[in-house]
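Try it yourself: sequence plus zinc ion, in.
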Amino acid sequence: MTLAGYQIDLVETGRIRLDGGAMFGIVPRPLWERRIEPDERGRIPLAMRCLLLRGHGRTILVDTGVGDKGTDKFNDIYGVDLDHSTLLGSFTALEVGPGDVTDVLFTHLHFDHAGGATQRTQAGDLEVVFPNADLWVGERHWQWAKESPRESASFLAENLDPLGASGRLRLIGDGDEPFPNVALEVVDGHTIGQVLPRVTDGERSVFFPADLVPTAAHVSPLWIMAYDIRPLDTLSEKERLLDRAARENWGVVFEHDPVTAWSRIVDAERGVATFDERPDLPTEM
Ligand SMILES: [Zn+2]
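Structure, out:
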C-alpha cells in the first residue's frame, strides 16, 4: 500500500505464545477461547507483525519482534516460533537489508517488540541489528523501562542496554512528531509512554495501535490485557482512539493477531464490530 508518501508493508517476524488469561484480563475463558484457541498449556498463538514505511528519504521500521537470541528455556516458555517467518527473512522478501533502515521506532520496549533490534555476535556480544538507524523511544517510556519493578519480566537488559550504549538512541518527547506525515499518539494504560504511529495524508490513515489493541478481539472496550498497568486508562484510550478510527475510517493494523492483520473499525462502542478483516494490507485505502 502507498499512503502519504510512504510504501507501507507489514513485516511478520515470527510467533510467540502468551497465557490466554493474561491476554484477556477479566474476560471469562469461554468467551475468549472462541476468538483465539489456547494450546494445552493455556497459551494462545500471537503474531509479531511490524510495520515498514519507505518514503521521504527514510526507511522506518516500527517494532522488531522478539528476535532470535532467547535461551531454550525462554523460547519454551513463550513458544517462540521462528520457523515460518523472521524479521530478516521478511526483509529479504521486501528487498530491504538491515543497513537500509534509517529509523527504528519502538512503540515500547517489552521483549516481544524490542528483542529483534539486537543480536548476538559470534563472540557472544550483543549488537544492534541495524547499523545505520536512529533508535526512537518515548522519553517517559525509556525512563520507566529502566526503573519499573512492576514490568521487570518484560523489560530485559539484553534488549535495553545495547540501545542505550549505541549512541543512536533518540528520545521522543510528548508532542514530538519526527517523521513526516506520521502522527504519534502517546498512551499510558498498557505501559508508561507507549508511542503509537498513524500514517496519514490528512484524509486517510493507517494506525498501528500496538499493545493498546493487540488483536481484533481487543477492539471490545473491556477486553483488556491483565498485563496492563493502568487498565482504566487503557479503557479510555481505546474508547477515544477507536471511536476516532471508526468515524474517520482508519485502517488499523493488529500487531499480535494471528489471523487478522488489518481491519477497519465499524463500531468501537459495541466492541467486536470490525469488518473488512484481512490477512494483509489492501493495495489501496
Ligand atoms: Zn507490551
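One thing you can check immediately is this: The longest strand covers residues 6-19.
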